[in-house]
């Protein structure tokens, strides 16, 4: 048996012709560059007025705080100094029951002054 070898039918149709369209003119879009304007930064202006009340002592002092500018009475924290320890040793040698006395007496300790509002260190009174 032989395969059926038929010829393809003749091609009678014309291939489609290419229609030539004239090129369309596209208007170019001009993009303007965007200019970013810097935003001015406003910084707060702080004016500090320091009022000197003179020397601070071992007691709380009425003054104006140099940090928060409030009228305050300073908060005093007591701390022993080298002189306090020397006095305690002298008390130990001379009369031992009075050894803790320099640590209990406010005038034998340094007085560190702080603002009660903002806790800023203001100064010290050294024994």
TrEMBL record:
A GO CC term assigned to this protein in UniProt: late endosome membrane
The GO terms describing molecular function are:
zinc ion binding
Instruction: Please give the chief subcellular localization of this protein.
Output: membrane
- Subcellular locations according to the entry: Endosome membrane; Late endosome membrane; Lysosome membrane
Keywords, A to Z, come to:
Membrane, Metal-binding, Zinc
Start-end of Pro residues biased regions: 1-13
SMART domains with a match to the protein in the record: LITAF
Can the keyword Metal-binding be found in this entry's annotation? Answer: yes
Metal-binding as a keyword of this entry, yes or no, is yes
**Topology term for the membrane:** Peripheral membrane protein
UniProt-listed PROSITE patterns: LITAF (PS51837)
Q: Where is this region: Disordered?
A: 1-24
Domain of life here? Eukaryota
Report domain LITAF positions.
45-127
Entries under InterPro entries matching the protein? LITAF, LITAF_fam
What family classification does the UniProt entry report for this protein?
A: Belongs to the CDIP1/LITAF family.
According to UniProt, the name of this protein is LITAF domain-containing protein
